[in-house]
Amino acid sequence: MINEHSILHRPFGKGLEVGVWKMGSASSTPVTVEKKPELLDKAWRNVMWDHSTRTDLMQYLHDYKPTIDSVPQARILLIGQIKAGKSSFFNSINSIFHGNITSQAGAGEMKTSLTLKYRTYQVRAGRGGQPLAFLLCDTMGLEATDDGGVKIEDIENILKGYVPDKYQFNPAQPMKADDCQACSTLALKDRIHCVVYVIDVSTIGILDQGMNMKIDEIRKRTNLADVPLVVLLTKVDKACPHVDKDLTKVYHSCYIKDLIYRAGSSLGIPPSNVIPVKNYYDEIELNDTCDILLLMAIKQMLNFADNYFENCEENTE
Fold first, then answer.
1. What pairs with residue 29 in β-bridges?
2. For residue 196, how far is the Cα from the chain centroid?
3. pLDDT > 80? residue 244
4. Phi first, then psi: what are they for 101, rounded to 5°?
5. CB of 257 within 8 A of CB of 42?
6. pLDDT by residue (tens digit) across 272-285?
7. d(Cα 298, Cα 294) in Å, to the nearest integer?
8. What single DSSP character describes residue 199?
């Protein structure tokens, strides 16, 4: 039933139409109609889309070191539903630093998670180069049912550093306590320093109750561990035809901006923690625009990891 405060949105057409409807005795008719542009004249986040920006970002990530000497690499945990693009994100970042499209982590369109093991992936500075000072940690996909996907308890164990690389997930039960190695005394270098919740933009607003409950529980546990949470919005090119045509319009698109704010609101984080990207999927060559969005995402994740390190240093003083 529609009341007089109901708002109707139509994403695309000649403009974003917002109509306020009023109930009448015979029919409901719009009283006022406000048209909003699909594209902003000025980008609401400033990005220089040139090759020098890509070069500067790569140099920043190449030179990056955690602020705590005892931590050789910042650990970034990727979580999210199946097919959201977790493994594809690592492959995309890896491709940029290799200089060609790579597919080290399994990625695809299967109905169940292709990632069955906990994997900590290093990104190297070129083919045969030295590992960079961050790790991308990939998990089994989240599923709404209790007996499917990665367990919340396993995610908590990963946050604390208990889960080793190549650990085989068991959707039926989480890792047993006696499987943990010195659970209460693990060093800071083994813990997760930033959590990234990966969301396919097409799924925003249509999650069922079971998935929403799991997401809420993950958010509570990251908060308890004081680990910063970032949202990575994937497949933004498929959400807006203007962005599909020209990726540099991502921060001009009113629809993408709305999705970023909605994602932040649903997870209780500011929009500055929400980052849109396009992973490499069917391309066979790299391009600067796609690279810049991906590299900016990693840089932002590392900035948040640095915040975590600063908090750890303050707590030990």
1. 22
2. 5
3. yes
4. -65, 130
5. no
6. 999 999 999 989 99
7. 7
8. E
Cα dihedral: 189, 134, 129, 198 (round 10): 140
Bridge partner list, 304: none
* Stronger pLDDT, 315 or 39, i.e. the higher one: 39
CA 255/CA 251 separation, integer angstroms: 10
Position 273, amino acid: N
Q: Is the dihedral of CA 102, 85, 274, 71 positive or negative?
A: negative
Distance CA 71, CA 58 (A): 21
Identity of the residue numbered 61: L
What are phi and psi for residue 212, nearest 5 degrees?
-60, -40
C-alpha 199/C-alpha 232 separation (Å) is 6
CB distance 183 to 162 below 8 Å: yes
Q: Are 89 and 136 in contact (CB under 8 A)?
A: yes
Q: Which amino acid is residue 97, in one-letter code?
A: F
Report which DSSP code applies to 247.
G
> Is residue 147 a contact partner of residue 213, using CB atoms and an 8 Å limit?
no
Segment (H or E) for 7: strand 7-10
Q: Which residue has the tokens 């969005």?
A: 293
Q: How far apart are CA 275 and CA 296, in angstroms?
A: 9
Three-state secondary structure of 122-159: EEECCCCCCEEEEEEEECCCECCCCCCECCHHHHHHHH
Cα 109 from Cα 14, distance rounded (Å): 34
pTM (global) more than 0.90: no
Element (H, E) at 261: helix 254-267
Asked if 68 contacts 188 with a C-beta cutoff of 8 angstroms, the reply is yes
Task: Report the relative pairing of strands 229-234 and 194-200 from DSSP bridges.
Answer: parallel
**What is the average pLDDT across 186-196?**
93
Q: What is the residue whose two structure tokens read 């060609």?
A: 100
